[in-house]
Design brief:
The structure is a single chain. The radius of gyration is 28 Å and the shape is globular. The longest helix is centred in the last third of the chain and has 20 residues. It has a 5-stranded mixed beta sheet, with helices on one face. Strands 2-3-1-4 form a 4-stranded antiparallel beta sheet. The C terminus is likely disordered. The protein has a domain of about 200 residues: VC0802-like (2-Layer Sandwich), CATH 3.30.2130.30. It is α+β, with helices and mostly antiparallel strands and about 290 residues long. Keywords: RNA-binding. One of its GO terms (biological process) is tRNA modification. This is THUMP domain-containing protein.
Length: about 290
């Protein structure tokens, strides 16, 4: 009986697997907090997650280079001070093996929906700044650095999709943004996208958010200066505030790259187009001849 129990325990331990941030893989990661919603080619969700990991890690390293350096430096200094104490060094190595795994900056949250991916972001990463940096790079170079990703929508935070929680989320996101320039009165538009959600109507969502916008700012559907991005997916609502959303093709990275490359091709063709050779013949058109007659 003891043998079978030990065998069973060993089997359970062999099945135990953890993500890099220490969370077990059998528990689905909840869609919560700040992150980036992404749409991708159907059937390429897994590939899109992989390429977004690589892209976001590269951008985050550039934008927040000192994110995890302080802890590493502290460990290094401790190691230096204990070089002469072998027993203490061994004890420290054992303790480091038992230490929880370092939490990663980005984590994929399962959506169980074709073409839709959500990558959560951990501090100090700001999803809006992250996406805008990528958009800027594409606008300058025409290179997407991804193959399957279509559109990116950053959300500064998320909540349960009900009216009280959405009101609370608005207070946490909208109030600080508009308070940053108290004398500025913005024209704004609510960009709402709803997927797999039928409890709150679009009108209810829009009215709830609009009531939370501080007084003095007005709705302008034609020429807005500020865009309130709202993503409602199943029972989760995410929100952020951005500018130049229409200028950058609603953050459709494929469209931005295509537009940038078309401009380059057009400019190159214009530069290389040879000037017409001068001849001794008249360039008078048939229409001009008829007028002269």
């Amino acid at each position: 009986m003891d043998g079978s129990k030990r065998k069973s325990d060993g089997k359970d331990r062999s099945r135990r697997r953890f993500r890099p941030d220490g969370t077990p893989i059998w528990g689905k990661r909840q869609i919560d907090g700040p992150g980036v919603w992404a749409t991708c080619v159907k059937g390429k969700e897994k590939q899109a997650v992989g390429e977004l990991y690589d892209l976001f890690d590269s951008l985050a390293t550039e934008l927040w280079p000192d994110g995890d350096v302080s802890a590493d430096r502290a460990d290094a200094s401790d190691n230096d001070s204990e070089d002469d104490d072998v027993e203490a060094q061994i004890a420290k190595e054992i303790a480091s093996m038992k230490r929880p795994r370092k939490e990663q900056r980005f984590a994929n949250c399962q959506t169980d929906t074709p073409c839709v991916v959500f990558i959560s972001c951990k501090r100090p990463v700001d999803p809006v700044q992250l996406v805008q940096k990528h958009i800027q790079n594409i606008s300058e170079t025409g290179v997407m650095q991804t193959r399957h990703t279509l559109r990116l929508t950053p959300v500064s935070n998320s909540c349960v999709a009900n009216v009280p929680e959405i009101q609370n989320l608005c207070n946490r996101i909208l109030t600080p943004f508009f308070a940053a320039e108290p004398d500025k009165k913005y024209k704004y538009k609510i960009e709402l996208r709803v997927r797999n959600h039928n409890k709150l109507s679009r009108d209810t969502l829009i009215q709830t958010i609009a009531k939370c916008v501080p007084e003095g700012h007005v709705v302008d559907l034609e020429n807005p200066e500020v865009f309130i991005l709202v993503e409602v997916f199943k029972g989760v609502c995410g929100m952020s505030v951005v500018k130049d959303y229409y200028t950058h093709q609603k953050y459709n990275v494929a469209a931005i790259a295509k537009s940038r490359n078309e401009i380059e091709c057009s400019d190159a063709a214009h530069i290389e187009e040879p000037a017409p050779a001068a001849t001794g013949h008249s360039t008078e058109t048939n229409e001009e001849r008829n007028e002269g007659a």
